Amino acid sequence: MKLDIQLFGRAYEVRKASIQKTGAAKAKLYSMYAREIYDVAKKGGVDPNSNASLKRLIERAKKEQVPADIIKRAIDKVNSGVDESYEKVSYEIFGPAGSTVIVDCLTDNVNRSISNVKAALNKCKCKIGVQGSVSFNYDNLCIIGFKGLTEEEVMDAIINADLDIDDIEVNEDMVIIYGNPKDLHALKDAIEKVKPDIDFEIDEISMLPKDKVTLDNESLEIFNRLINMLDDIEDVQHIYHNVEL
Prior knowledge:
Blueprint: H1 23-44, H2 52-63, H3 68-79, E1 87-94, E2 100-107, H4 110-124, E3 127-129, E4 138-147, H5 151-160, E5 167-171, E6 174-179, H6 184-194, E7 200-209, H7 217-231, E8 236-241
Antiparallel strand pairs: 1-2, 1-3, 2-8, 4-6, 4-7, 5-6
Helix pairs in contact: 1-2, 1-3, 4-7, 5-6
């Protein structure tokens, strides 16, 4: 058993989707999940029982209230032989006053993605960096959060499963575990063995900044405008940043 716990006091902020309940925003959310479900099903198989990534993605989509027919249609496209190719690309951005942003896209047209991202940056007078220029200041981690078990029970489950974790914390009655992204499913399985009906309120793979910055009003206004413009781009899947909000 190797247990390497580094207590960084991350104080995980439960990130709720910033997407407002408008028709256009819902359409983007549905499109985002439809693409990702299709891509994961195409690469790993359409059966969630044998494709853990697809199972997790469907669970997450349901929590985001994505309609069942959107999920079904995405999987049916794979079954019917529809051939679409999506590529995952990331852009590392220098924002105002020491802020940084990482944007993940899932796209069938990389030229369109980079063009749209650069257009948003130009309007906010921000710059794109080379690969690694921003991401070295972030930790790529899986995060799961749940209620119903004590920290001691969780630690016992992790030890019994012979898993390493990066950090663990308790926020009121929620236990939050940070680990290697490749261990996401194994960590969930270990917890489910202790409590089969567990509800994972947090279940994601994220980029967490090692340090955060606080922006003044003017810089924060520019930063928020940038984030909103990036969020409006259809190909954008995830946005990570180092700003204290």
